[in-house]
Specification:
Elements lengths: L3 E6 L4 E6 L7 H9 L7 E5 L5 H10 L3 E6 L2 H13 L5 E5 L15 E6 L15 H7 L6 H11 E12 L3 H10 L2 E10 L8 E8 L6 E2 L3 E2 L1 E3 L2 E2 L1 H7 L7
Parallel strand pairs: 3-4, 3-6, 4-5, 6-7, 8-10, 8-11
Antiparallel strand pairs: 1-2, 7-9, 8-9, 12-13
Length: about 240
């Protein structure tokens, strides 16, 4: 359609339809798709799924029994279903719903092994609002807040299940506090730096429902080796061309 693009990820192995204008997924979503470690046959739930990129990745890479993707915007929920069909991934199921709703049809509480989310990075009332409503919903807390995302993750996870988030490093203390408040104990943490000499801008966190307090801090992920050139690890994760030798 004229208002859409079809973009390839993971070296062309997956294709995603996206709005030409409006919210489009970023590298952060792909990093979360690589960070998660679901077991084969797991039931996965994505919160605020956009066009479904992380659910599509999870279904293609890890062989879950189901990857249900909740999205508030009905036009994006439709894209999730179309992207699942485009990539022949029957395990992906689009759910047009508000994650803040206590009862969502087909999404039972305490029934998922893994919940994944890329919440809006900007707190309510901070930063400049996008003139595009879809982008604003995805990038700033104009609807669901970080607490809403974490509460939903806790609600739908089985005891012992995992929640994985990608979030702004500048709000990292807030995310860890929210996770602990909802009895989701952080177990793995990885910071993402644009370059080796720059501070982290993004964090990847995995928490376990009802888990202990031990936390593994993984080595940092460096996105770029030089301007416009991905590091070897980032290129491998993203399916990008390798660094020229």
């Amino acid at each position: 359609m004229s208002g859409e693009t079809v973009d390839s990820i993971l070296g062309g192995s997956l294709r995603l339809i996206q709005p030409r204008r409006g919210y489009r997924f970023s590298v952060d979503a792909i990093l979360l798709g690589r960070f998660i470690r679901p077991r084969p046959g797991a039931r996965i739930l994505e919160l605020g799924a956009g066009c479904g990129v992380i659910s599509i990745m999870a279904a293609a890479l890890y062989g879950p029994r189901e990857a249900a993707a909740i999205e508030l915007q009905s036009e994006l929920a439709d894209l999730i279903a179309r992207n699942a069909a485009l990539n022949n991934l029957a395990a992906v199921r689009a759910v047009a719903a508000d994650l803040r709703t206590r009862a969502i049809g087909g999404v039972a509480p305490a029934s998922f092994d893994l919940v994944i989310a890329n919440p809006p990075y900007r707190a309510a009332g901070s930063g400049r609002r996008s003139p595009n409503a879809g982008r604003n919903l995805a990038r700033a807390e104009s609807a669901a807040t970080l607490d809403d995302f974490v509460a939903a993750a806790a609600r739908y996870l089985k005891h012992g299940g995992k929640a994985a988030f990608v979030f702004a490093a500048s709000r990292g203390a807030e995310l860890l506090s929210e996770l602990h408040a909802h009895r989701l104990e952080p177990k793995r943490l990885r910071m993402v730096h644009p370059r080796r000499d720059l501070s982290a801008t993004t964090m990847l966190v995995e928490a376990r429902k009802g888990g202990g307090i031990e936390l593994e801090v993984e080595p940092p992920l460096i996105l770029y080796a030089a301007k416009g050139i991905y590091s070897e690890e980032a290129a491998s994760m993203l399916g990008a061309p390798p660094i020229p030798r």
